[in-house]
Structure formats: C-alpha cells, structure tokens
Design a protein that fits this description.
Blueprint (H helix, E strand, L loop, with lengths): L1 E3 L8 H8 L7 H19 L6 E8 L6 E3 L5 E10 L6 E3 L6 E4 L2 E5 L5 E8 L8 H16 L10 H8 L7
Antiparallel strand pairs: 1-2, 2-8, 3-7, 4-5, 4-8, 6-7
Helix pairs in contact: 2-3, 3-4
Length: 172
C-alpha cells in the first residue's frame, strides 16, 4: 500500500482551462478533480513522481526474492525503514541496515525473505525537469475526462499511452 504524505502539482487550473478553451468558472472544481486524477494516472503508469514528494509504503518481501521495489521513482532519500514482525506486530527500525540498489528498473531495497516493511522515502523529479510527454499526457487525460464525462471512459487513450511509454519505468 502506497500513501502520499506530500504532493506537487505540475499542471495548474488556468493552463488546463486554456487547453480546454474554457473561459468560465462554473466547472473549476470539476476540472480541478480531473487534473488530480490525471496526475495520479500519469504517476501510477510511469512510476515517476511528479515533483519531489514524500511517500509511506508498506511492502512484503517475496518468499523467493530478497528485495522489494519502491513504487515511486527516482529515489531521493530513504527516511525510515521499519521491519514489522508478522506474528506480534512488533516494529524494529532497520533504516541504518538498508542496502538500496538503483538501476533502470527503479529502486529496490534488500530485505529478509518473508518480512514486511514500512518505508518512508522521498522520490520524484523536480517540476522543471518533468519530461514533456508526462505534461502532455496530463493535458490529454484531463481533456478526455472533461469532454467524455457523460460516457464511461474504459481505457486510457492510445496517444496518452504512447507518450507515457516513452518515459515510464519498466519492470520485468
């Protein structure tokens, strides 16, 4: 389970309204909600945090692997790693013992097999350095939700996937 402790916004309401060619304020709350959803969709799809943010994530090591991947990238810093005993729920701070490995697949931390962890970390790309594809995907997703709000949108548009596939972190 991943929980954002802090958040950043890449795309503001005025820019989206300009993109949508909307010059009234009646639907600002609705459009703002679409912007939030589009940001989350882009972050989830790419595993890249928009702006440096703080996350708290609960992870369970796979019985066959001795590492777990953090969901959001690129890693800036790990603040705390708590090992959680599955039997009695006791928590042990193992932050100083953490071995982290970062490569093209993202960041993973070395763990003991069959253990659960709570990891608090910061990850993300500065807003000025966000790939243009991510910004365009947010605009396309927001406009798609706005234009098709009556219909149920069943999947991301091909153009959005094309843009995000160029920058997303692929895990095998």
């Amino acid at each position: 389970m991943l929980r954002k402790i802090s958040t950043k916004t890449l795309t503001d309401l005025s820019l989206v309204k300009e993109h949508l060619k909307v010059d009234y304020t009646d639907e600002d709350t609705l459009i703002g909600g679409y912007i939030d959803v589009a940001h989350n969709l882009v972050e989830d799809y790419t595993s890249i945090a928009i702006g440096v943010q703080t996350f708290e994530e609960y992870l369970t090591a796979d019985m066959t692997e001795d590492f777990v991947y953090l969901s959001m990238n690129p890693l800036v810093a790990i603040s705390e790693v708590i090992e959680i005993d599955e039997v009695d729920g006791a928590e042990i701070d193992v932050t100083s013992d953490v071995v982290k490995i970062t490569n093209s697949l993202g960041t993973r931390i070395k763990t003991d097999k069959k253990k659960s962890y709570k990891v608090t970390y910061s990850a993300g790309v500065d807003l000025a350095d966000i790939p243009k594809q991510m910004h365009q995907a947010i605009l396309l997703c927001t406009s798609d939700m706005f234009e098709n709000r009556i219909e149920q949108v069943k999947q991301k548009r091909t153009s959005v996937e094309y843009l995000l596939n160029q920058v997303s972190i692929k895990r095998i």
